[in-house]
Design goal:
alpha+beta, 2 domains, six-stranded mixed β-sheet, 11 helices
């Protein structure tokens, strides 16, 4: 399998323009990519400028960051043509997209939809988030560094400038190669782009990693409907596959994330973490993580639940 490490540069409009073009808040103006083989050796390169069609003036922030002028972009080619070239360059052999962070694949698909192109997929796309993998190997797994900071941390040679699509793809590929050499098992930590969530139960994503399980649900019309779904709300031990009764039912300390606690007699405490996302269609879908935790972590979760109840009780009395 090959690895397509890609990066995008995009432009944006002012507040009024972005309101007018809410379906494409960021217009891709450059695609750069490096292809690695299964030995993580660079075997091909791709770099193209794209002629803008939506935002015809360079945003001040974009111009300062990537050092591109609109005159240069006017010599580029239309997005649909460049995207077609890019997909042909990706090839017919099996490949996995890789990027620094989680935004590029979403924005690429949003631009494709705007230009009425055939979608890359009609469901979640697996990819490698190299920024996340870097944190798992070199830091705490939670922090997220800029690309240049990561390059400095591992003392890679800076032989081409940053903040252009090809150069950032090049450095991302270098970091991915280093990660593969140092800790290849971390490459099993696949991420999923959910620009197109699952549409049916059969398409739902369930993936078991070394220390947790990830589940991406199909779409629902409401949050209540999502939590009423057995697969969304249930707790199950991913080691013995036993359905568990909850010690703490789903609660939310911040109206964004929901947590629950269950206990397996054989393997101990399991924490569920769930977030409801809005899809491009306006419907809702759930992303749930279930992982084993220590008794001390379970006690902290109980305290967090108690604090959330107290806060809710205070809000209710204030109203």
């Amino acid at each position: 399998m090959n690895y397509v490490v890609f990066d995008l540069e995009w432009n944006q409009g002012n507040q009024v323009q972005q309101t007018e073009h809410a379906d494409i808040p960021f217009e891709v103006i450059e695609i750069g990519a490096v292809k690695l083989n299964d030995k993580y050796v660079m075997i091909s390169e791709f770099s193209r400028l794209i002629k803008p069609e939506v935002y015809r003036e360079m945003h001040q922030y974009t111009s300062k960051l990537i050092h591109l002028q609109m005159e240069e972009l006017e010599r580029g080619r239309p997005f649909a043509e460049v995207m077609k070239d890019f997909l042909e360059w990706c090839g017919t052999e099996e490949y996995l997209f890789c990027s620094w962070g989680s935004l590029d694949l979403t924005e690429l698909q949003r631009n494709m939809r705007y230009h009425n192109m055939t979608p890359l997929s009609d469901r979640p796309i697996p990819y490698l988030d190299v920024q996340k993998l870097f944190s798992l190997v070199y830091e705490d797994g939670k922090s997220r560094r800029s690309l240049e900071t990561a390059v400095d941390m591992v003392q890679l040679e800076k032989d081409i400038p940053f903040h252009r699509a090809f150069s950032d793809a090049y450095y991302t590929a270098k970091l991915l190669t280093g990660i593969a050499e140092q800790k290849p098992e971390v490459l099993r930590r696949i991420s999923f782009d959910t620009f197109h969530p699952p549409k049916t139960r059969a398409e739902e994503v369930k993936v078991q990693f070394d220390t947790y399980v990830k589940y991406i649900s199909r779409e629902f019309d409401s949050k209540a409907e999502a939590f009423a779904d057995r697969e969304v709300s249930s707790s199950k031990c991913y080691l013995c596959h036993k359905n568990l009764r909850k010690k703490i039912r789903w609660f939310s300390p911040n109206s964004k994330h929901y947590y629950c606690l269950a206990r397996c007699d054989k393997h101990g405490y399991l924490k569920g973490k769930l977030r409801i996302h809005k899809s491009e269609s306006g419907k809702l879908f759930a992303v749930k993580i279930t992982k084993l935790i220590t008794e001390e972590e379970a006690e902290r979760l109980k305290e967090r639940c108690d604090n959330a109840k107290k806060m809710q009780k205070y809000k209710n009395s204030a109203n």
